[in-house]
Amino acid sequence: MNTDIKFIPIDYDYFDFNGKNYIKLIGRDNKGKRICIIDHFNPYFWAILKQGTSEKTIQKIQQKIQKIKIKSSSRITSVIKTELHNKNYLGEEYKAIKIFISNYKDGHAIADKLGMKEIIARRGYDIRILSKYIIDKNILPLTWYNTSGEIIDNDDFAGIANIDVDLCVKAESITKSESQPSFTPKVLAFDIEADEFEIGKGHILMISLVGENMKKVLTWKHCKIKQDYVECFKDEEDMLEAFVKYIKEYSPDIITGYFSDGFDLPYLRARAIHNKIKLALGLDNSNVKFARGRIPSARISGVIHIDLFRFIQTAYSQYLQSETLGLNEIASELLGEKKIEFEHKQKAKRTQKEWKDFFEYNLQDSILTYRLFEKAWPDISEFSKVIQEPLFEVTRDTMATNSENYFLHNLDKFNEIPEKKPIHEEISERRMRPRYQGAFVFQPTPNLYNNLAIFDFTSYWPSIIVSFNLSRATLLDKKQSNSTEVNLDDKKVYFSKKTGFFSKILSEIIEKRKKYKQEYQKNPNPITKARSNAYKLLANASYGYLGFFGARYYCPEAGASATAISRDFTKKTIDLMNKQGYKVIYSDTDSIAFLLNKHTKSQVLELLKKINKNLPGIMELELEDFYKRGIWVTTRAGTFGAKKKYALINHKDKLKIRGFETVRRDWCRLARNIQNNILKMILEQGNHEKALEYLKQIIKKLKKREIEKKLLIIKTQLKKPISEYKANTPHIAIARQMQEKEMPVDIGMLIEYYIAETKDKKARIRDKAKLPDENIPYDIEYYLNNQILPAVENIFQVFNINIKEVIERGRQATLF
DNA sequence: GACTGAACTATACC
DNA sequence: ACGGGTATAGTTCAGTC
Questions:
Q1: What is the DSSP string of A518-587?
Q2: Would you state the pLDDT for residue A345?
Q3: Is the CB of A659 under 7 A from strand B?
Q4: Residues 510-569 of A with CB under 7 A from strand B
Q5: What is the spatial distance, in angstroms and rounded to an integer, between the CA atom of A438 and the C1' atom of C4?
Q6: Which tens digits make up the pLDDT trace of A82-114?
């Protein structure tokens, strides 16, 4: 029976039937029904021919290729057909044979059989079949399609249709719909609590589930406690089975958790195995599968599992203020939610009241995850649509991979054959590469400055890459008549002036970013913002991509050229500004801070126009802001001005603090707060009087032991397994103590401690470091000399005040 | 045993 | 293994006097 439906693909999968590859799309129709579409797809790859190979030879090669067969236990893969095309590869024209094969899994094996000397490269066999399908058939995620085809039943394709959907169709035609109504997926958030931190070691005590019209906590513990959302089961096994049942009933498009790739789903799997039950969450009743990777990604067949932590880490973290990526902190920043403090105790110690709080806490985490998902959905879905990769992939891939995928999905417009991924030896070779020289940082003179402004280059790296056409394909072997020459430390490199596909795609990204940013400003909503943001992230990742060892279009020469060009422009602009009667006081990479020197704001804008007139290509300088005051200090050694460390106040009294201890999470709150307040007082008032008084008061309090302990806690991140540390630092000493006490210690955690007084005055700091709950008095001298004074010393030095002497004088004065 | 500089480590800036 | 380089700064640790 035939049918026509309007369908939106959400999940992409594939399967083999009779040795051939088929694509399985899961999504919804416009009435909200769950649909599965089976589509046929013939994977292919390219054999690139030596330029000048004769037609006759090519025909012979094609005939040879057509006879290739790969036999394995489960299938015979053959070449279905070959086609000859005129293609581009790294910007040059070639004849290339397009080789269609019956099963993509044997692509590598078939490519290995192409030893003919006329074939100079084999490409495209290392692209995932689902990406290839999307590129080739142009069936994009989260886009509506009019689909017609034959309804299939459970017996077809060896039962592939025997899954939990309303309708399964074997596609005959799939065409993009004219109307693209907005789509809201059905989402379920979940979170587990266990009595042991280590995966699988303890029991899962409870699981919360939150969706639209769904708020549940499933448990098998303390069932007497009456809470309407708590549902009680006989044991862990029953609870796990109910968890699976509820998810099936709810039938979500997306299941979301926070760190669920790394914790919740591995734990659930471990406990399911222990209880000898199947975690059959897939639409085909399959188990959760874990893909290889640094953090294994948990995949559920037919349902998109999204670990929000992973997406936030790659897409948001550089723009967030939060010091950790924990759910509570991120939710409080992104949603403005107040944090719920909850102390994780050993199970034996919990009171009835505490169990009640535990249930509520568990539910709250799913609520936060659900709301965070709603907030992130525009970004996640736009990312998927812009990059043209499925939701599962864009939420797991790093920015380098996302960028690369964007390029791969846009190569066809340039008739370009994709470059291959580097393999092991090449990767290790690339990783040995010495660093190339980076951007320019201006050596500031420490002082308090008045009346200044900052210019910065918009999208600096992308604009240089585009304007100078820097890329792998445009890098030339030698100087040509129409090439750009760039001087690097040890050599000269040349780039063609004929615009390459990399620059073209990147300039499109920048243009779209501009366009959607304007659209957002005209019509501010989460979708226009997300679209603009997706292009911004892609543009910003392009420069790092050039130097990344895993990149298909790896080109450190282009990266090094971009920085060489950047240094040139920044320095030239600084010179020009100084000659015009301004005084540049600082610069880092793409920004220039300068004194107005009696110039008016409109004169500054005129200067900006003048500079922009002479900038090449799409390079552009813009005004960041005008500032009332700014302070630069010396380094700790005190001999010269510190780079990457300054504080500014604009004309609306808004502070901008960079690099100071205030913004560093590995300093105690006390030192950070004092420094922040002192910077604020000095910048607001233009002098240090009030700040000095304030400092004296705090030091008095410190010496009288009136400072709360929570202000004295120092937090340091554990960045690798404890055993790999060569130095025995305070945070490692504490981490070891925590392990002995069987407290959870894991990579990525912030280790918290404070410095306590000891009898041995010369004891090492690590020997004085104590866990926060210990009751030994804090070490006054340490907090004074190693926290407070280092944080404020060079600020007062700007006013020629030696703060140590002032404190010492104060001490002697009290003696008299 | 005090001192010094290198090594190790963490974190920020753009 | 899962963008880049530049920069500051604390603590430990090994070598020197």
A1: HHHHHS--HHHHHHHHHHHHHHHHHHHHHH-TT-TT--HHHHHHHHHHHHHHHHHHHHHHHHTT-EEEEE
A2: 63
A3: yes
A4: none
A5: 8
A6: 999 999 999 899 999 999 999 999 998 999 999
